Amino acid sequence: MANLLEVSNLSFNYGRLKVLENLNLTIKENELVCILGVNGAGKSTLLKCINKILPMDTGEISIDSKVVNDSDPASLSRLISYVPQSVKSSFSIDVFDVVMLGRRPYINWAISKNDREIVSKTIHFFGLEEFAFRKFNRLSGGERQRVVIAKAIAQEPRLFLLDEPTSDLDLNNQIQVMKKIKTLVEDKANPRSALIAIHDINIAARFADRIILLSEGKIIADGEPVEVLTPENIAEVFMVSSEIYNSPSGNIQIVVKDEINN
C-alpha cells in the first residue's frame, strides 16, 4: 500500500511548554490508525497541526508525497476533513444543509446535482434519514456528532482526522459509527485513511489497523493493536495495571485492574 500521510519531525510548543516533540509517523492508504494517550498527551494538538489549525514550530507534512505545509485552506480541505472533539456551533438549518457544507471545497457558483446526490448518499449511508430535514439545533448531542461526521464524509477527503468521534454517543452508536468509518477506509476503489484520537482503548483495539501510544508529546509505541496494547505499555502510558484477553472474534480485550502507585 502506498503512503498517504507522512509527518516528519513535527514539533509544537505553547509558549515554553513543549506539546509535541519531533514526531514522525506514516499512514498508508486504506489504514485506520487510532491515537491513544492521557489527557494532555498531545492527541488533539497533533490532529490540529496536520490540518493547519495550529501552526507547527518545525516539521513537514506530506499527502500523496506532496508537501502541504503551505497549501491554501481550499486545497487542503479537498485532502483532509476534520471533526473536532466537540461541536460548539448550533446551526438553525436543516441537517441536509449541514452535511452539504462538506461539499464547499467543490462548489463554485451553485450546488450541483452531483453535490446533492453525494449528500443524499451520505445521509443514507450514515442512517440519518429520519431527521435529514430537522433543524440541527434541535438534535441531541449524539445526533449532532453523527451529523458532523457525515459532513466530513461528504467532503470526500483522502484523510479523515477525527477527534473523539464517539465521545457523545451511546454504546450502540459508537460501534455503528466506527463500523461505518472502517467500511469507508477499507474501500479499495476509493483509497483513503483515517487518523482517530480516541479514549476508549477497547474500541481502538477492535477497529484500528494500527495504534499509536502518545505520552508527553512523544510516540511511545506504534504498531498493530496486539503488539502495542501490552500490560507494560498500558502501565507506562496510563499508569494502570491491566490484563489482555483474546476475544472469540479474534480481537483483544483489555480489562483495567487498578491504578499503579508511584
Structural account:
This protein is of the alpha/beta class. The protein is built from 9 helices and 12 strands. A 6-stranded mixed beta sheet has the order 6-7-8-3-9-10, with helices on both faces. Strand 7 (159-163), helix 6 (171-186) and strand 8 form a beta-alpha-beta unit. Helix 4 packs across helix 5 (141-154). The chain is globular and about 60 Å long.
| Main β-sheet description | 6 strands, mixed
Average predicted local confidence, pLDDT: 92
Structural class: alpha/beta
Distance between the termini: 43 Å
Summarize this structure as a short list of keywords or feature phrases.
262 residues, alpha/beta, Rossmann fold, 12 strands
How are the SSEs ordered, and which strands pair?
Layout: E1 3-14, E2 17-28, E3 32-36, H1 43-50, E4 58-63, E5 66-67, H2 73-77, E6 80-83, H3 95-100, H4 113-125, H5 141-154, E7 159-163, H6 171-186, E8 193-197, H7 201-207, E9 210-215, E10 218-223, H8 225-228, H9 231-238, E11 240-246, E12 252-259
Parallel strand pairs: 3-8, 3-9, 6-7, 7-8
Antiparallel strand pairs: 1-2, 1-4, 4-5, 9-10, 11-12
Helix pairs in contact: 4-5
